Known about the structure:
- The strands form 4 sheets. A 7-stranded antiparallel β-sheet has the order 2-1-5-4-3-6-7, sandwiched between helices.
- Helix content is 29%, strand content 22%.
- The model is unreliable at 5-11 (pLDDT under 50).
- By secondary structure, the protein is of the alpha+beta class.
Amino acid sequence: MVQRRMSSSTTPSLDPFTAEIIREGLLAIAEEMFASMGRTSKSPIIYEVLDYACALTTADAQLISQANGVTGFLGTLTYAVQDILNKFGDDMAPGDIFATNDPYNGGGSHLSDVSMVMPIFVDGELVAFAVNKAHWSEIGGKDAGSWTTDATEIYQEGLQLPGVRLFRQGKPEQGVLDIIAANVRTPDMTLGDLHAQAACLRLAALRTQELCRKYGLEAVREAIRLMLDHGERMARQALARLPKGVFEAEDFIDDDGIGDEPRRVRVRVTITDEEFIADFTGSAPQSRGPVNCSRVALMSGVRAIFLALTNPGLPANEGFFRPLKVICPDGTVFTVQRPAPVSTHWEARLFATELVWKALAPAVPERLTAGHYLSVCAQVVVTTRPGTDQLALLVEPNAGGWGAGFDKDGEDGLYCVGDGETYVLPAEVAEAAYNVRVNRYAYHIVDAGEGRFRGGRGMVREYIITSDEGAIATASFGRHKFRPWGVAGGRDGSPNYVQVVRADGREEPPVGKIARVRLAKGDMLRLVTGPGGGWGDPRERPRVLVQADLRAGMISVQSARDVYGLSEEEIAQALGGKSHAD
């Protein structure tokens, strides 16, 4: 029987020095978990790209501290813990580890993102949970890589783990591990990542137990209570500084991957002295295709923008989100119901973030920029490892352009808001691990995103297939039809797209989504992300900055002349007297 006892109101208050030491210790545990998992995983998307997150929660699933690679996991780990608590209740013991990837409940994203949860006991009493979430490159399903753009039900997307016990008192539940191994195409890599997550959780349990024994269980509990209360105070102080009122925005998701019809989404943000309310009522119903996201993912998307608006430098905890309220009826593209597909869930989740962003950017310009390229812009390239016939899955997001601010240009080549501190897969790793050659990785220079402050540039990444057996590619690049938005007269950005260039030089039309496109040896997959929106009238941009952009190759001569208004003399001066024929 699990013993639970929350901190009593009669517990003497900690002195602030000890409380701060314990707080820093709890934050350090999450950071050490993150470092441990990155060192021990087997997948490049984890140890290179950092597509994972780690956290500690209280015994009743309240977030204490979290270390993120992926912003999109912010706050979702608490739902994974709550899912395990709801299912197993008191049927937990020291050494137990559970897993869930149920997108409609604790999983919150898609089946590839697997959360693992470990209860932490001190002297037989449940005191906390360690939890992590990581992208497994393979979790089964109809397509290698376990996500696609044309799934129509969850059963096509992979193996569902609806809250299962993986380890019982430290020993593996071999039958469950065998089921996982039998349902994935890369069992060695998948199980390797599973064990890396388990090791990370055990480390967290050890460090938490050490902290409790050093300072006493009641002191640690009191420090956690103070942390959460402090988070709430900081959020409410920041909320008081935000403009009050009602702010609205709408936008369109390109399509659902099955049909071409855009999906309209909208938000109504109400800010009062006490609450920050984001109401998504009126957004499109859930789609037949996999662009849907779950309510948990919706919460994560809104939490990310709420933190950015209020106090982005503060470590997130459950207390910080107490003033936040999210409203959305069931069955929308943001609150999908089983068994609808969710494998490209980011196409909806990121719109939830950016809708709030779009509604508030003109009102809070010191915090929010114009629109960015938005989509994760992810692809799966199914190939083999060089020199072998072993299946290899090149799974990665792609960086793009962010919108300009009221006093700054947008960021060039930065990952989308949902990916946070993830990293670009190095060309050397891609070429060593997969049968591809990186032909080009450069800024995408296109006439778009102009403004007094211009949108950041997107990127072009080109993979040439080097395997005699060829490869298969799937990709989802949202904002292919509806561009990143500008503010205050700034121009919109440009679309993201995927393009196949055949070995004989034939260029196929650029598209936003592809599923299982066959690539022969010598064919090239071109991955293009657009610039963000501009801010302000382009004609107000200082001439010297326009000339510097032109000299650096960040804008075209035509844009410098026709949009920014440079004279021929100024253009020639910027180019050092060289020919400037378009």
